[in-house]
Design a protein that fits this description.
CATH superfamily of the largest domain: Single-stranded right-handed beta-helix, Pectin lyase-like
Helix content: under 10%
Structural class: mainly beta
CATH topology of the largest domain: Pectate Lyase C-like
CATH class of the largest domain: Mainly Beta
Number of helices: 2
Number of domains: 2
Number of strands: 34
Amino acid sequence: MRRSGIRNTVGAGVLSLALLPLYTQGLWAQDRRNVTEPAIPPSCSVLSAELKSQQEKLSGDQESHLDTERIQKALDTCPAGRAVELKPGSGRDAFLSGPLDLRNGVTLLVDDGVTLFASRDPRVFDTTPGMCGTVSKTGGRGCRALINGNQVEGAGLMGGGTVDGRGGEKLLGQNVTWWDLAEKARAGGTQNNFRLLVLSRCDNFTLYRIHLKNSPNFHVAYNNGNGFTVWGVTIESPKNARNTDGLDPGNSTNVTITRSLISTGDDNVAIKAGTGAPTTNMTIAHNHFYSGHGMSIGSETNGGASAIRVSDLSIDGADNGIRIKSNSARGGTVRDIIYEDVCIRGSKNPILMDTHYSGNGYVETGSKIPVFQDIVLRNIWISGPGKITLDGYSSENRLGLTFDNVVLNLTAPIQIVAAHTNLKIGPGPVNFSVSGDDVNVSGKSGKSDANFCEDKFVAFPAH
């Protein structure tokens, strides 16, 4: 079997990725655009840093020096097709900001060696006075994002620098961090924490080479857009930082996520398909995932998800590997999904098809039945102990799945649980058997190939 992959060179905190077309053997990209490596636009305005970080943090006496106004003024006056550039200046390397609003065709460019820090003052993020930085009984929308896009087209966030949400640092005036609030909300209620990027109806948006870290909540939420490119991006937060999803595209079309590294405390990527426009034509190719909750679709699927291709992916140490999740309160049809050339190790749930998802306190009541059909796993290698779950909703709403060259490293125990599933085997090898309540297996396993993942796993780079 020929394996299509990425060539990695990790050194001095830099990841270099070979520029390959966005397809693998037998797996053409589903993003209908011709996606190529983005280009950084020329600058319309260059702002020099006036703050200095120490060990990737800002000292308390700098906390009142907000750069929000001057960055926003530059964004507001920049013509389309140009960039507002944040650069180092006179030994200074940091900017401090509250919420920023992107504009049509304008890129925010964070240079190498520069960090854009989020303010620790929850009041600057308030949507309702006094709400941000609290746990409330309902809601969870008490904060604006650090970087906001609303119906802006052709905008972007680029550069080799860093955007730091400071989720693990204490809020001003409180003896608690943003992530502490998320943990407190487990007992009931919702944390009002801001997200790094919230992009709504932002067609043709580009994230390129940027390093996103320590968001208090999701790092990137992209909703109701047509055209979203993520290329060469690094996202990181601690594995115990609750609700710190990496990338969450939802109700959107023509999305490509490529050549990126994601290590978080929640879903590395979570494709959402709630009420609204269908979620379709997405390509996730040539990426590395580390800690987190894996490559997920759901839990909202009632809007429908289809034509999604995941290829050339390593998942190293995530709680889940390949996961589709929903339930009868938010379910719908998920179909025409192909995973190819995926290497998984150290995952508790390397394959998890879950139509009775109950995470985050979701109650399974309703008539929105999740139906997962035409799901193909091809060239999948799994190492380490764990559990494979193939959970169709019912005998009338079955899971439809194909395993083609899905190989387990059988030196470690794997538990396999299945119900209400139609499983097709082959033509490639499958070196384990599947049985369970109302499970139908057809096809024939081929001859097993050698491990094709020996050079796939790379260390997460130091920054």
